[in-house]
Design goal:
Chain lengths: 143, 124
Amino acid sequence: MPQVIRSIEINAPTSAVWHWLATQKTLRRWISSNIEIDMRVGGSYRFLGPDDKTWVSGHVLELEPEKSLILSWLEEGSGWVNPARLVLALDPIATGTRVTLIHDGFEGIGLEDWSETVADYERGADIHKILDRLADLVSSGEA
Amino acid sequence: MKPSDSDALFRILADPTRRLMLDLLAERGPLTVGELAAEFPDLVTSGISKHLMSLRAAGLVCATRRGRQQIYRLESDAFVAALSPWIAKYERYWTTALERLRDLAERGQTKEERKTHQRREARK
């Protein structure tokens, strides 16, 4: 299934790279200067997206310092019912850190039944359900 | 992509049975109607056919005839084409975003920031 995979090697230790993923202030330097993000699992975020006219919003799904940051990713007003997913993973390599970015789950962005789960989630009902759903979407997208 | 195209695609994908059919074709390669039907014991054959028809109409699968059997396969190109506007946008975006991240981690500032800084220095 379609996905965006990019990786880059950085001549700096994972702790130094993580610094730039760890806070709203540092994320503003490279993801988007206007991002508002509550940096904890379940925390929400929002920013003006790549085209400078569509807002992107979602939640922090996973946050493991110096290892990974996973966000749900919904383009507002684009007909998406269900978010895609953004994974940022850090791996130590001999020369520093490899950052791998996977933007996937696009095949699921129109699922109508997702809205119930999102509503549950917004009521604070069950975060794990959303993660399970994401896991399903991701495994279905692997082939 | 026209909004109507994506709406139609989303409607097709909204059904869990159809998603599962796509998954099966993606994982196992081309399958006969019988092989697909075996994965859905609760569905009658006409139900299977209906789902396959809508996937075909959306261009997500195609069918070829071998003897008396219809063989279904995934049209991955159609899938990629339908979602490509988003893919292309994010590919560009993430390539430059990761370069900014690298510059920050290695040098403490991005290329854009260095340029702004140089311009400011030059004015002094």
